[in-house]
Write a structure and sequence with these properties.
Radius of gyration: 15 Å
Order of helices and strands: HHH
Largest sheet: none
Number of helices: 3
Number of domains: 2
Keywords: Membrane, Transmembrane, Transmembrane helix
Low-confidence stretches: none
Amino acid sequence: MMARILAGLFTAPVRLLLRLSTLAERTKRAAEEVTSCLTTFLAALFVLAFTPGLHATNPWLPAAAATVLGIVANLIVTRVESHKR
C-alpha cells in the first residue's frame, strides 16, 4: 500500500498536467496508460526495495514482469467486456 502511494507521488504531477493539457483526447488516453504503467513499475520497485527480508539481485526484472502482467490483464478484461456487448 505504501509503495503504491509513494509511486503515485512521483506520477501525480504528470497525470495532473495531462488532464489540464490541450492534447487530443486519444493522445491523453495513451499518455494516461503510459503513466499508469510507470506507476505500477515504480510501485513494484519500491516494494522490492523497502520490504525487509525480500531480496532481489536485479529488481528491474520482477518490476517489469509485474508491469507486463498488469498490461496483459487489462487487455484481457477489455476484450472480454467488448465481447459481452
